[in-house]
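Collaborator request, handled under Task 6.
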Amino acid sequence: MKQEGTLEKMRTLRINPVQYFLTLNNNDIPMNEFVGKNISLRYTGNIYCTICNKKTYKSFGEGLCYNCFANAPENAECILRPELCLAHEGKGRDMEWETAHHLKPHFVYLALVDQVKVGVTRDTQIPTRWIDQGANQAIILAETPYRQVAGLIEVKLKSHFTDKTNWMKMLKNDFDSSVDLAAVKARVKDFIGEEYEQYISPNNEIINIEYPVLEYTQKIKSIGFDKLPEIERKLIGIRGQYLIFEGGEVMNVRKHSGYEIILEV
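Structure tokens returned to the collaborator:
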């Protein structure tokens, strides 16, 4: 099989194990089928902005040309810092986009990756967000009417939980299996204050997520097209947005969004 196209974040379906699809030239390629096989990924040297499709010499912020990186609503400051979102006040880089994405119900969640982390995502990104982070488990903590409120709750919790993912530990499957997310959630009221208690979700379901990984290794090395124009390796697993190769080499697909490649299996 041979397919050519521009990389974008892998699409996923939460069927344990998670089903991964790489979209190239509008074709969804089921990547789980290739776990345990040799695959070749060859970079053509071309990069195209994932928003405007303009050819760019460099990818900024995971697949953007410089103009979109600086001006597009998809890369506004409140993407990484939701507490700064002012869409509910009618302010933003593009109010049509803000209305469609940020004036929507948002969730604050707890996810067990290498440790318990807190995060924010909109309603349509559950469980995709947790899968993209490589979480073992996740639980909904709070439901809010728009993005800023969720961000303010997250800020309250950052002194108690990390908001970062240790990607190397995640790819080693190094985590504390004794953690009880429901019990952790029960303690959160002590941290957020009465102002935000009304948003705590009664949903205490713990979502368990499994990944198509044949084996985990304790030696991890990141590789990419900027130094290796062709990557030909045995694929032994997929987790988060990483392809895991035999010997512990890993490639972050999302980081290479916009790169034009040729996939051969």
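The cover message to the collaborator said: "The radius of gyration is 19 Å. Residues 106-208 form one domain. Please let us know whether this matches your experimental observations."
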